[in-house]
Design brief:
This is Sensor domain-containing protein. The chain has 244 residues and is α+β, with helices and mostly antiparallel strands.
């Protein structure tokens, strides 16, 4: 199951390639009349709200190419996008909403459960012939929002440690085992989703590097439950640390 990021309008003053669209972690459409063109990945006003943020173009450079994936995976061009050189306007912080959050952890854009919109993003999806998926996303956040996102994701995962999922005409008793990963970025969480009704499982990883949050989703049918997702995420984290 995939949850796509919602497209947003781009301000007339910000020029983006037609193939790209600015998006938000909150997953809801909103006008970007306050978007500003980035300069070397940050606001063109020194000390401005976007100072030090990587824009979508630079975030895209952090994503893994298909060659880093196991053999048989192919990129999904329709799900490979970024917010370009524009930053989304600042938005008010909505309270964490746990209602309905658990099933969204079974989708690629699971960072949306944190309920905070990012200033810029890049994402890329891969799948193989068995419909196994690896999805990666990198978001830049203003101020302390990246820390808040990590805190909220931890709260969501704890809340959803055991839940019943009803989708595609089936019912599954899902268990989530969440652990912290030391010495990986500034903060890292790994969560493994399993259910007796499933074949295989899903590994989610969220890692913060400064004001950037990396999230990955690895859904497989094999017994390793996507454990290789942690190693793949480490590679993105290493790229983000170099880009700081």
């Amino acid at each position: 199951m995939k949850l796509r990021r919602a497209l947003t309008a781009v301000a007339a003053t910000a020029v983006l390639p037609l193939a790209l669209a600015a998006c938000s972690s909150g997953g809801s459409d909103h006008p970007s009349s306050g978007a500003s063109a980035g300069h070397k990945g940050s606001s063109n006003a020194a000390g401005g709200p976007n100072a030090g943020l990587l824009n979508g173009t630079r975030l895209k450079a952090l994503l893994l190419p298909v060659g880093e994936l196991p053999k048989g995976y192919k990129a999904d061009p329709q799900a490979t996008r970024d917010s370009g050189t524009a930053f989304a306007p600042a938005s008010s912080k909505a309270p964490l909403n746990l209602a309905g959050a658990c099933p969204k952890l079974e989708a690629s854009a699971w960072i949306q459960t944190a309920g905070l919109e990012s200033a810029a993003f890049a994402q890329g999806d891969f799948a193989n012939a068995s419909q196994e998926e690896f999805n990666q996303e990198v978001d830049s956040f203003r101020g302390k929002d990246a820390q808040t996102v990590m805190l909220r994701l931890g709260q969501v995962l704890q809340h959803c440690a055991h839940f019943t999922d009803k989708s595609n005409g089936t019912t599954a008793a899902v268990t989530i085992k969440t652990t912290t990963v030391p010495k990986m970025g500034d903060q890292t969480l790994k969560a493994v989703l399993t259910a007796p009704e499933w074949e295989g499982g899903t590994t989610l990883v969220a890692s913060r590097v400064g004001n950037t949050v990396i999230t990955t989703f690895y859904n497989v049918q094999s017994g390793d439950k996507g454990s290789a997702g942690l190693g793949l995420t480490k590679k993105i984290v290493a790229q983000a640390q170099k880009a700081k």
